[in-house]
Amino acid sequence: MARVAVLGLGAMGSRMARNAAQAGHAVTVWNRSPGPVAALGLPSAATPHAAVAEADLVLSMVRDDAASQSVWLDPLTGALQGLRQGAIAIESSTLSIATMQALGQAIEAAGGQFLDAPVVGSRPQAEAAQLVHLVGGSPQALAAAEPLLSVIGARSIHAGGIGAGTALKLAVNALFAIQVATMAELIGQLAAADIDLAVAIEAIGSLPVCSPAAKVAAGAMLAGSFQPQFPVDLVEKDLGYAAGAATPLITAARAVFADAAGRGWGGLNLTAVAQLYR
Questions:
Q1: For the domain with range 168-277, which CATH number is right: 3.30.1640.10, 1.10.1040.10, 1.20.1250.40, 3.30.1360.70?
Q2: Domain ranges of the chain
Q3: CATH class of 3-161
Q4: I need a labelling partner for 161 at 20 to 30 A (CA). Which of 70, 144, 195, 264 fits?
Q5: What is the 3-state secondary structure (H, E, C) of 192-217?
Q6: Phi, psi for residue 229 in degrees, rounded to 5
């Protein structure tokens, strides 16, 4: 079993760390605030630099570009300066492509190996070790990381070089977010037309035009179920990373989620955008 450092103990990282430890890996953790560290009960370090000192594999799971850059590159506490030669750094946060590529270059220049490995799945999948890793990096580094990835996820998809995993993750999240935003809008239109919403959603969900994910989201909207799995503010962040000059649908969806966040719903599940149309 490997010596593993897990940096970031949010809803996802804490579950990944626990599953790695339960599989027999020697796990050391770090988190910016002490509460999640105490709740997990695993050996911990005061800084990312200290956490990675003996690690063969380092997994980071934080909120965004700024958090990732702080965790890895801070000149005083960052993990990069403490990384062992040949150790494998795995960034599973959803970042921008440019930030992921720059991070990979910095780690490889310092003598480490790097995997761009964001995940598909939310809290239930992290809990059950059923995440799907979308991986960019060398096949050799991926093979060496599989003893860890295989106990925190169900499978790994090798997308290409560094940045490819992130590009694929942003595409997946954009597709999902656009479907959810569209379904929320349609439910609003159907309600205005005085149609039985349960009948309408059952009909739409039974047809090939509706994806399974959109059907589940629609059911949550009708039930008013907005417990966070993929919060509105993180969806808006990811759409910002995915948006570009030729992405009108992504840009429009981002505006919907930004509107919802601006109304105080940023911490609710992305299905909370349905409230915009009530």
A1: 1.10.1040.10
A2: 3-161, 168-277
A3: alpha beta
A4: 70
A5: HCCCCHHHHHHHHHCCCCCCHHHHHH
A6: -115, -50
